[in-house]
């Protein structure tokens, strides 16, 4: 066999190995109930939960509580099954948290509390089409 074919086979084998090893790290969105079950079963990987912030009858966001030093925040999030859960985020409150349409929290359960490592926001104004008059 020629040397270039051997090198090509090695590159393909290494690529397949890398893809297979990282495929197990991919995560899908779950509800808080599923996330709690995963945590009780010893799952220690980051869990992705998608939902919205809790709102009152007037559509105002409720349950957002920044810490006194503004270095962390807790908020009430409602998942796709309408289950409410207090989420703790040990970082300053994201700028557009109160205006976001949808929130994705990435983290895990600790002592029956969901602790987010990351908070991803979908803000409405950036993506809505506007009519030009």
Question: Which features characterize this protein?
Answer:
alpha+beta; OB fold (Dihydrolipoamide Acetyltransferase, E2P); 133 residues; elongated
Low-confidence stretches: none
What general outline do the C-alpha atoms trace? elongated
- Find the count of extended strands (DSSP E, 2+ residues): 7
Q: Which structural class is indicated by helix and strand composition?
A: alpha+beta
CATH H-level superfamily title: Nucleic acid-binding proteins
In percent terms, what proportion of residues is strand?
A: 25-35%
| Residues in helix, % | 25-40%
Number of helices, counting only DSSP H or I runs of 4 residues or more: 3
* H/E element order: HEHEEEEEEH
Q: Summarize the biggest pleated sheet.
A: 5 strands, mixed, barrel
Distance between the termini: 69 Å
**CATH topology call:** OB fold (Dihydrolipoamide Acetyltransferase, E2P)
Q: Strand order within the widest sheet? A: 2-4-5-7-6
What is the name of the CATH class?
Mainly Beta
In short:
The protein is of the alpha+beta class and 133 residues long.
Detailed description of the structure:
The protein is of the alpha+beta class. It has one domain: Beta Barrel (OB fold (Dihydrolipoamide Acetyltransferase, E2P)). It is 26% helix and 32% strand. The protein has helices at residues 3-23, 32-40, 124-127, and strands spanning 29-30, 47-53, 65-66, 73-79, 84-89, 102-110, 113-122. A five-stranded mixed barrel has the order 2-4-5-7-6. The longest helix has 21 residues, at 3-23. The N and C termini lie far apart (69 Å). The model has no long low-confidence stretch (mean pLDDT 84).
């Amino acid at each position: 066999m020629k040397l270039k074919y051997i090198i090509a086979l090695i590159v393909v084998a290494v690529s397949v190995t890398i893809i297979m090893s990282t495929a197990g790290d991919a995560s899908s969105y779950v509800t808080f109930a599923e996330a709690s079950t995963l945590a009780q079963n010893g799952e220690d990987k980051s869990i992705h939960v998608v939902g919205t912030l809790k709102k009152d009858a007037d559509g105002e966001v409720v349950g957002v509580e920044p810490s006194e030093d503004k270095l962390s925040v807790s908020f009430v999030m409602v998942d796709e099954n309408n289950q409410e859960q207090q989420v703790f985020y040990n970082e300053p409150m994201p700028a557009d948290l109160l205006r976001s349409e949808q929130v994705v929290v990435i983290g895990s359960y600790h002592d029956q509390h969901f602790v987010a490592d990351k908070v991803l926001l979908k803000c409405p104004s950036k993506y809505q089409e506007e009519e030009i008059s």
